[in-house]
């Protein structure tokens, strides 16, 4: 019989709960009860509690001992701070990746951008997010910097709800052309240009802060 580690159950719970929050099934401010989540997921309370602790670290869940656990209300200031960090880390990853990129990496970016454009055209926001993640992940992987990767993983969940808004709007399609420009810069091995273009691409999220504040 194959042993299934507790960490695997925790990761399953983490992915499911995070997606429920980012997808709006668990709305900002909604109370969370580990017993109910465990029943919905078919898991024990322990991995659910561990997943909630991780989501607390990510800023998606907040709790007060002996009082409440809930989905974190949208905090524009916190999201703005996280966005600045994520934007800077992706730009740095692009710069670090340039000396290590090969043609297969560029092909992977092109394929991801094609999938991204297709998802946007069909209004499939989750698929667009997945394709956009894969596009940017190529440079992050090739950059090979653990601290950059860890920082992106740590703060991206905070900006994900804004990304969903961007890709649900017609203006999100502008990212397809931006991705093409980024690929061209990578193909030319122009680290400075690639970093600037990646930074500009992530900067488009800043326009949504005005919407959130209003």
From TrEMBL:
<feature type="domain" description="HTH gntR-type">
    <location>
        <begin position="7"/>
        <end position="74"/>
    </location>
</feature>
<keyword id="KW-0805">Transcription regulation</keyword>
<dbReference type="GO" id="GO:0003677">
    <property type="term" value="F:DNA binding"/>
</dbReference>
<keyword id="KW-0804">Transcription</keyword>
<dbReference type="InterPro" id="IPR008920">
    <property type="entry name" value="TF_FadR/GntR_C"/>
</dbReference>
<dbReference type="Pfam" id="PF07729">
    <property type="entry name" value="FCD"/>
</dbReference>
<dbReference type="InterPro" id="IPR036390">
    <property type="entry name" value="WH_DNA-bd_sf"/>
</dbReference>
<protein>
    <submittedName>
        <fullName>DNA-binding GntR family transcriptional regulator</fullName>
    </submittedName>
</protein>
<dbReference type="InterPro" id="IPR011711">
    <property type="entry name" value="GntR_C"/>
</dbReference>
<keyword id="KW-0238">DNA-binding</keyword>
<dbReference type="InterPro" id="IPR036388">
    <property type="entry name" value="WH-like_DNA-bd_sf"/>
</dbReference>
<dbReference type="Pfam" id="PF00392">
    <property type="entry name" value="GntR"/>
</dbReference>
<dbReference type="GO" id="GO:0003700">
    <property type="term" value="F:DNA-binding transcription factor activity"/>
</dbReference>
<dbReference type="InterPro" id="IPR000524">
    <property type="entry name" value="Tscrpt_reg_HTH_GntR"/>
</dbReference>
